[in-house]
Amino acid sequence: MAVYRITRFAASDMDKVGEIAENMRDVLAGVGANFIDLVSYGNGKGVVIAKYPDQATMDAASDTAKKAFGEMIESGAVDGDSVHPHTGEVFNSF
């Protein structure tokens, strides 16, 4: 069953967040996710939604996700205290 990692964050520079993610595209594309979407709510709030085929694949991608957010935090684009990851398993789909 598919699993998701949903990570909320606050960014002082959403364009910089997108630039860092784009620079990591090849690495992120290789983690086995079905998709990874970066979404801006506006007002400096965002969320990353990543869907994985199973828990093992998501677990294996954890270090890469931490590295990506680490670069965003180190650059000053993301507030480190604002990063809140949540994970869950799909139990129903429409």
Structure description:
Helices cover 37% and strands 32% of the residues. It has 94 residues and is an alpha+beta fold. The protein has one domain (3-89): 2-Layer Sandwich (Alpha-Beta Plaits), CATH 3.30.70. Strands 2-3-1-4 form a 4-stranded antiparallel beta sheet. It contains 3 helices and 4 strands, in the order βααββαβ. The radius of gyration is 13 Å and the shape is globular. It has helices at 14-23, 25-29, 55-74, and strands at residues 3-10, 35-42, 45-52, 84-89.
Widest beta sheet: strand line-up: 2-3-1-4
Order of helices and strands: EHHEEHE
Total number of helices = 3
Biggest sheet statistics? 4 strands, antiparallel
User: Which structural class best describes the helix and strand composition?
Assistant: alpha+beta
Short description:
By secondary structure, this protein is α+β, with helices and mostly antiparallel strands. The protein contains three helices and four strands.
